[in-house]
Amino acid sequence: MKKKIKNIFIYIPLLIPSLLITGPFLPDLLLVLSCLYYIFDQKFINFLKPYLKKKEILIYLLLILLTIISSIFSEYILNSLKSSFFHLRFVLFVMIYFYLASTYKKFIEYQIKVLGITLFILVSDSFLQLMTGKNILGYEMVTAYVDRPTSFFFNDLKIGSFLSKFSLLLSALCFYKNKYINYSLILLLLSWVLIFFSGERASFILYSLSILFITMVFYRSVKFKDIKIIIIIFTFALAIVSYKVMQETKYINKMIIHPLKELSIIESDEKFLPAHRKHFLIAIEIFKNNILLGSGPNTFRYECHKIIKNENNIANGCSTHPHNIYIQLLSEAGIFSLFIALYFYSRLILILFKTTSNLIVKSNNKLKAYAIVNIILLISFFPLSPTGNIFNNWNSINILFALGFFLKLRHSIKNI
Cα separation of 42 and 25, whole Å? Predict the structure, then answer.
């Protein structure tokens, strides 16, 4: 009986990425059940102890500790504390994923199969919806300036964010095991097309840069006959983009022209990130009133109303969060939390630089996996990108698997 229960809890984490498509409840439920099981697993505890002293883990724990302290001193202590304190379950799950990937030989292979099937179904259904207007269940695309494929996400405009992270994670896993690499690269290209039509500009721009980097660094490892297949798939993908764009030019305006105007590459009166500018200004005002510890995690929604009353030049800027991870940390958790987050990001950049340097000298699939996982984390925490709420369950779970696999690779590859 114990062995059956143990096997169940080995496989449960594998299902969580797929269940993210249903929303936050089911994946968070399985995550909590996994945490409750493994805190009583002596093998896991013994595995965990030496890693608690590692720099990456200490950085994460220090950041959580600061957010908890911020909550304790917050005006909204209970609402804030449930966001910061229970965030510890995400730290624990990262370590659980690290433990399972390091301990069970078949775990990563099973993750490849489950994630690969999930992405294949999601991508296939999304293309069906894109070309016919309806997915396999008869659900139509969501219209938000442009028609956006959402597949099984239905009304949630999250497919771009999901594909940008998990298609890259699948590639990293495939490179690590040296299996299904071409399949994963084809999924990357098809995902790129869908992210474009998803209307999620930040995801598309950062994902495109990721694809460009992977192409420049990894091209030598792909065999000539495989390159022909990939070129055919890429041509097919571009044909679909061209066909849809010719039918509806709004895609070009939204995904290319508007970002260029915001960055002043194309002359325009539009300002950088105008949609979230008022959120940023309010967050800065909140920070000015709470420099060291911030107003408390997840309190932007309360504090913004105070700022609007006192600042006549800022109006209609309230939201649940300021739409940028670093500005949210600055306003809700104070300046020290921001410094820790920036330190972590700078370490990721340094690790990617060292990994790329090693790859230029010698091609190694595990190093390629490591580089891709770093890319996932870099685009997820990119400072200039509009983001979701850092204390949101779905957003947090979305990145845990890359963090867990990052730790697995970090402590199995030496001298990086």
Answer: 28
